[in-house]
């Protein structure tokens, strides 16, 4: 029951929001009048909603399609995994019921799904890799669409011991407990092996994934924290010259902007 | 810049092809700011190039003008900056609501046809208009059900909001037609007595018949049917001025060449309708 003093218009919009997003819309299907009465609506409104019950259930389908479509686009592998286990619809229902889509930007629906998985832990006792898999899938959109920024001033082209590596702002140095990059629509369960990935977009804007060793990943992470490459390489036991060669390659691929003094 | 003729929505699958052209293949494009602002990357740069090169009208999708949720300052700021950057002559939103209690449905949900809803919407339109650098238009939507007990008809509701908010009208011809089929009225009778002087832009689109539900759905996923094109000609003749028309296509998007051919056919309808006015 809405709070006393809730405007009539808000009670109506609240009812529709419940019936399109909440699992208890089954109550509307079974008894639209009672469902409306529970939400503080009088006999005239109840009668109008009963009369158009099937059309409001059509709206429920339309909203679910509108919010599921960007998930199907963003999460082909997660979808393949869950649909095999007959759990995809269950996941979408739980996600919609959580009402975590709040952004007016349609592109934010898929990231909201990942945020919901992280908050709710939904399905992760059964699929411990689920959040990481979905995170990796949405990372592609995040990297590809990252806003363009002018490069910071004073960038240097060459790595050196007293410099740090500067990542492209669209690039992400990420670590996963499962080899999510190896999962496919055909084989959607990622192997149980740690993965250190440098995800970036190339000059044409195409998403690219570089598999790193844990040491190189740590070297980049320390650069992001401001530690110079020389001391970081020494602490990590990495050969600096080999690391510089690798960093030049990352730069040429567009994953690094360049280098700057530490 | 005066906008006229039949434009197209600029769709994601066509951006690369359109960007490679030397000039715009249409009089103008329509673009949703929500799909552009705050992003980047190669396709975004191509799109930005097209928006700089060609004439653009903006059309919003998600402000939930009839709702209660507040507009975030950064969302408004980005919108305002985008409207200024594109040089759009106006900005439009649907006469509907889409979010409630912070939950966004990304669907165009109908308002109840009540005096309270008129007052609420008018207040929200005026508040948004006060923030925008260009005139604001409201678009009539397709609706499949009345939300609760109505105190007036949908036609009266649209009329009262437009008059109360004193704003422009984006008249969606297909939505009038879809509603006329679903709710059983004569679209020309619906339009008679409506404030056509407020119309600054027209929308035209295809729809889909859902056999199981017995309802015409405003899908923007099919070519425009003859009765809708005929209604467009009828409206243009009554308007008697070259109001820009936008052909919407959001689903089952065909090749650009197919859409351009459909646009050209509608441009002929447009030219004939207005030539009739000139000679009358
Ligand atoms: Fe429209």
TrEMBL record, chain A:
Residues in domain Putative DNA-binding?
49-117
Q: Would you tell me the protein name for this molecule? A: DUF2063 domain-containing protein
From TrEMBL, chain B:
Source organism superkingdom:
Bacteria
Pfam families hit by this protein: MbnB_TglH_ChrH
Q: Which Gene3D superfamilies match?
A: Divalent-metal-dependent TIM barrel enzymes
- PANTHER family per record: UPF0276 PROTEIN HI_1600
Under NCBIfam families, the record lists: PRK05409.1
Protein's recorded name: UPF0276 protein
Question: What is the species listed in this Swiss-Prot or TrEMBL entry?
Answer: Geothrix rubra
